């Protein structure tokens, strides 16, 4: 097997996927069997500058180069060969946000990420105008809010894109997006698989009094679906990614996608009646719909699969960050007491302890709002833990509370789909940090959604592997296979999945917790108002 992999590397038949997540940039190299053969990663964090969550372009390229070089080192360590030629590349990143450039390709304002809940007025106006849910984090919302704020840079905009689109553009010279990523910029016409022309016209009419020298269609990227050619790695792009000069130009690139689309691919959830839930820094659950929803819901976003099928998304800005902070506190306690416990053991032990707690988490309550939470209408957040004198304050209940809280806001959106819209869903596929401790995150999520939750063997590889698979699909779909067929026949056919069905007692307990969670929201509101 090692010799076969080595030959693929030397012959330039391997495929690279890179995803820029909220806390980590990960690179995955896959072989001809579509399984990972090497990885590299770079940890990073957003900065809060001038009331904006952002990453600098310097951080973006430093992280990309570092993750790629670590992958190259991993290849050399495992196979004793240098990686210099690739068959295909895929770029993915956290969706939405605001990146705008002038006619000299200069960034006009610092990157505004999805995490910024500063576009409430724009989101409300555009939702009413289009009669279509337009979330605060969408790129069009950031653009219109900048217009409402009379920001002078708007007049100089020549091109607007997302983080994935920006990196892809720098590597190829092509201003394109995959349709799934594009659906987080502006609504998609499901018939044409491109931006909705009628809504573009409505937007242009809305802002025509501003007398800008651009129209919306002129500054948006082109839209492509999975399997379409989206350019080649240029000489300049190769040097950007690998300043050593080892990486050769010429690799094909698939359309850049967002972390929602790559999550669908990585969990084999692109067909109707399938869904996946990603739980990490943020949490989002996606269900591929058979029919359109009956009405507009502010809690439900409509995006698409990488092939342009309609997807309902329940997204919450906050998930495991506050939970991680508590676990870091426990780790610090161990260090002060002279107890040596590695991080994996700490997580495994405390996550499993949560399963010993009461079904309703003993009357405890927490809100892990490090940032604002649009699902519950908070523009900013304050992490908060509360209990009454009659609560059962045990370690097991404490941990269960924080696991429940991590997915509670997202559950509110999923309840709309499953309870109000009666959406058909056979199974959810889980991926992300919440599921790393075997079985625990699945049990919590199954209780939250009252739906079986499966985790695939490769789910831990995440979106970087998902975008690598989309790049592999680009160079292997000559026989006309759909993406769903390709995933079933060439990627997931031999993979095992661990499925956990909901425990009725836990389902009932989670519903009790949610009653407490929703009643307690004024406590969180007071914390936001009083704790600066």
Describe this structure in words.
This protein has 532 residues and is α/β, with parallel strands linked by helices. The chain has a domain at 97-161 and 186-219: Nucleotidyltransferase, domain 5, CATH 3.30.420.40. The chain is built from 18 helices and 23 strands. The protein has a seven-stranded mixed β-sheet with strand order 17-18-16-15-21-22-23, sandwiched between helices. Strands 1, 2, 3, 6, 13 and 14 form a six-stranded mixed β-sheet that branches. Helix 12 crosses helix 13, helix 13 (395-420) crosses helix 17 (504-519) and helix 14 (440-449) crosses helix 17. The radius of gyration is 23 Å and the shape is globular. The protein starts with a helix and ends with a helix.
Feature tags:
Nucleotidyltransferase, domain 5; kinase activity; 532 residues; six-stranded mixed beta sheet; globular; alpha/beta; seven-stranded mixed beta sheet; 39% helix; 23 strands; FGGY_C; 18 helices
Briefly, what is this?
Pfam families: FGGY_C, FGGY_N. With 532 residues, the protein is of the alpha/beta class.
Number of continuous helical runs: 18
Q: Give the CATH architecture of the domain at 97-161 and 186-219.
A: 2-Layer Sandwich
> What would the average pLDDT be, to the nearest integer?
94
User: Strands of the largest sheet, in order across it?
Assistant: 17-18-16-15-21-22-23
Helix proportion: 25-40%
- DSSP E strands, number: 23
User: Percent of residues in beta strands?
Assistant: 15-25%
Low-pLDDT parts are none
Terminal Cα span: 58 Å
Q: Structural class, from secondary structure content?
A: alpha/beta
Shape type: globular
Give the full name of the CATH homologous superfamily of the domain at 97-161 and 186-219.
Answer: ATPase, nucleotide binding domain
What is CATH's topology name of the domain at 97-161 and 186-219? Nucleotidyltransferase, domain 5
CATH class of the domain at 97-161 and 186-219: Alpha Beta
Query: What summary fits the major beta sheet?
Result: 7 strands, mixed
In angstroms, what is the radius of gyration? 23 Å
